[in-house]
Predict the 3D structure of the following.
Amino acid sequence: MNLERIKFQTCPNDQEEGILLTDLEEAIPETDSFGNLQYYCPNCSQTFTYCECDSDND
């Protein structure tokens, strides 16, 4: 899986860049119980989830 295109997302807490959580080899992304990608924001030290269904691409 190519993670480069999904590696960063904007943190909803402080609008800074969050980094995708992965396994040690950076091959498999971490997900929550719903399958949403999980990110870590180093600025606010919080994790957050991202789902493409949350974006407004209508």
User: Anything to note?
Assistant: The two ends are 27 Å apart (CA to CA).
